[in-house]
Amino acid sequence: MRSAFYISDGTALTSETFGHAILSLFPVQFRHRTLPFIDDSEKAQQVVEEINTAFRDSGERPLIFHTFVDSALKQVIVRSEGVCYDFLDHYVAPVQAELGVAAKPKTNRTHGIHQDYNFRIDAVNYTLANDDGVTTRNYGEADIILIGASRTGKTPTCLYLALQYGIKAANYPLTEEDMADLQLPYDLKMHRHKLFGLTIDPDRLQQIRDARRSNSRYASMEQCQFEIDQIEGLYRREAIPYVNSTHASVEEIAAKIMTTARLERHRY
Amino acid sequence: MRSAFYISDGTALTSETFGHAILSLFPVQFRHRTLPFIDDSEKAQQVVEEINTAFRDSGERPLIFHTFVDSALKQVIVRSEGVCYDFLDHYVAPVQAELGVAAKPKTNRTHGIHQDYNFRIDAVNYTLANDDGVTTRNYGEADIILIGASRTGKTPTCLYLALQYGIKAANYPLTEEDMADLQLPYDLKMHRHKLFGLTIDPDRLQQIRDARRSNSRYASMEQCQFEIDQIEGLYRREAIPYVNSTHASVEEIAAKIMTTARLERHRY
């Protein structure tokens, strides 16, 4: 199998995103390899050997996506047997011309620690302390409160919003006991402008629940269908914005919530 | 202030990463705006109006970083008053030539839902259930077990590893009570090949703890210094790899752990 390498003197997150975005356009399988913190010539030389070995083993030149701040290290990698792509190559000069300001490369400025950093950690702590409806006392501080049936993806979505964007995201489950004649709980009514609903196709919910509690009433198709009907009815009645998580990744759900609820990213 | 826009018919995560990586090279402040899911011509036209308004208000042409799969929508954006950069422009043709395979653009392939998806959600559930040493019963399943003093960043790092890479990351705090004559707890000894330490500069630890429990013994400089000395001594004695989180973001800590511990990304 052909290899793809993502290499940088920083975290290599940018080169990964860059390479994945390009390779995702091609129906080709790759062996992926990420090599962060290649920050001296000895490490760079080891990388070259690894690239050249991959070439010898597969007979195909590896694709190399790299973003080096240190141009001497970049030159070492470029002399390997890989086909090298540096996405800064084509953009720094035109952006520099447009801004009329010289570029000042600095390692790790993209994914390093910033002033926003404590904000993100505080948001993670908030989210953990306000997960799954354990308390509703801190909803005044919330940026958003996700609601929905059990197992619709509330917790991972909240954690993603907190970790990536510093958003204080609480979540509250609408549980089996509430379902007959479902009303918005009193503690939520007070914060209705912060509410955002998740829903999911009943057959997918049934699958997920069955994997946890096989053959239970909780995991039965009737119960899943009933809960989703009740909950979507509530969302519509109360004009709560909502998103269906069935075919969406946590990144997609988060992006939809942020856009619909007009949440500010606390991090750029 | 000049505006930067990140626009896509998908999540816009790729255009954000692309744009941030370039703009981080320049010591210039921007007003940032991310616009995901611009997937019909009406939405694209609204975006053009927003770009043109930003131009009129600031007198400077906004920088537009975009990654559209639908080329008709892209054409609408390109006709705005913004200066447009599409990072696929320069790379699709050469990669296509190298692979000898035609590109097949598809929305959301980069940040969409994949087979690896349940893996990530399972990892988040694992991490939440094995946070902060609440149980050591499931360490057989762990991919990694982070250890360290209280407030060194174990929980956010574990959640990041789980959410981003599907890594089952448990964590165990080395607490005040253990400190005199610190030994590796028995439950950890059994899994010593999975252990990874976090440490932090004592003055930074003191700041973080003081913000939580002001003027406590827990937050005193002596206690912080003592714990870090004991813990780093333990790491060295037991040959446990460790990383200092003081000046590192969760992305950087995670990248260092993955590389040092040779963890496989369960997601690409």
Give a structural overview:
- The structure is a homodimer of 268-residue chains.
- The first copy, chain A, has two domains: 3-99; 117-260, 3-Layer(aba) Sandwich (Rossmann fold), CATH 3.40.50.300.
- In chain A, strand 3 (63-67), helix 3 (71-78) and strand 4 form a beta-alpha-beta unit.
- A four-stranded parallel sheet of chain A has the order 2-1-3-4, with helices on both faces. Chain A has a four-stranded parallel sheet with strand order 6-5-7-8, sandwiched between helices.
- Chain A has ten helices and eight strands.
- Chain A is 42% helix and 14% strand.
- By secondary structure, chain A is α/β, with parallel strands linked by helices.
- Chain A has helices spanning 13-23, 41-58, 71-78, 92-99, 117-129, 154-165, 186-189, 202-212, 221-237, 250-260, and strands at 3-8, 31-35, 63-67, 83-85, 144-148, 169-173, 195-199, 242-244.
Layout: helices, strands, pairs:
The structure is a homodimer of 268-residue chains.
Chain A: E1 3-8, H1 13-23, E2 31-35, H2 41-58, E3 63-67, H3 71-78, E4 83-85, H4 92-99, H5 117-129, E5 144-148, H6 154-165, E6 169-173, H7 186-189, E7 195-199, H8 202-212, H9 221-237, E8 242-244, H10 250-260
Parallel strand pairs in A: 1-2, 1-3, 3-4, 5-6, 5-7, 7-8
Structural descriptors:
Rossmann fold; elongated; 8 strands; 4-stranded parallel beta sheet; 268 residues; alpha/beta; 14% strand
